[in-house]
Specification:
This protein has about 200 residues and is α+β, with helices and mostly antiparallel strands. The protein is about 40% helix and about 25% strand. A hairpin with a 2-residue loop joins strand 2 and strand 3 (about 60-65). The model has no long low-confidence stretch (mean pLDDT about 90).
């Protein structure tokens, strides 16, 4: 059971890449969901500053800790990185869209067969809509909407501004290699994206 929350925070919308195709194979879809939920549960148990709601092939994470905006983002990016790395180890890829703004969650007493928990706020709406927006987010990518965030806010070398976003390169330990990763990723096709992500993640070991 999640505690009620109301305030301004960062919200991440995480989606499993290629899940619609996996649904044609019942066992495959079930396996990826089991893995996704288990990894999400384990990570959230280890970090009590974030709550998470998992529905089908999507996860909604939001920072509950009352702390400065910079720290909220740092906490969220840490969880995003861990979940992505562990899913990658299992040969699954995700996309992550992050937005800042108002968010509200309330547990409500329901009826048998009906859950009435309330979740709303422009941070959630913006993160979700961005997952469907153009430019289309690529497999494995994590991007943060710039709006409502100060330009001089970020000092994280793994965040790169492009257009209306900051892109977070969670899989590259050495920030000096981000440009090389971007080139390799751009040159790769969809099938090759998994191996490129793994290659750079393994360099962290």
């Amino acid at each position: 059971m999640l505690n009620n929350f109301s305030g301004q925070t960062f919200v991440a919308f995480i989606d499993i890449c290629g899940f619609k195709a996996m649904m044609s194979e019942e066992n495959k879809a079930s396996r990826v969901l089991d893995k996704f939920y288990q990894i999400g549960y384990d990570e959230l148990q280890a970090c009590r500053d974030i709550n998470g709601i998992f529905i089908s092939d999507c996860g909604i994470l939001y920072v509950t800790k009352d702390t400065p905006k910079e720290e909220k983002l740092k906490i969220l990016l840490g969880i995003v990185r861990s979940i992505n790395l562990k899913m990658l180890e299992a040969d699954y890829m995700l996309t992550t869209n992050i937005a800042y703004g108002d968010f509200f969650y309330q547990e409500r007493r329901g009826f048998n067969g009906i859950s009435k928990n309330l979740m709303m706020g422009n941070a959630y709406v913006k993160a979700f809509l961005d997952s469907q927006a153009k430019p289309k987010i690529n497999v494995g990518e994590c991007r943060i909407l710039k709006e409502d965030i100060e330009e001089d806010f970020f000092d994280n070398p793994h965040l790169y501004p492009r257009g209306k976003y900051y892109y977070y390169y969670w899989n590259v330990e050495d920030s000096e290699k981000i440009n090389l990763f971007k080139k390799d990723y751009k040159d790769s096709r969809y099938i090759g994206a998994l191996q490129v992500l793994k290659d750079y993640s393994n360099r962290n070991l």
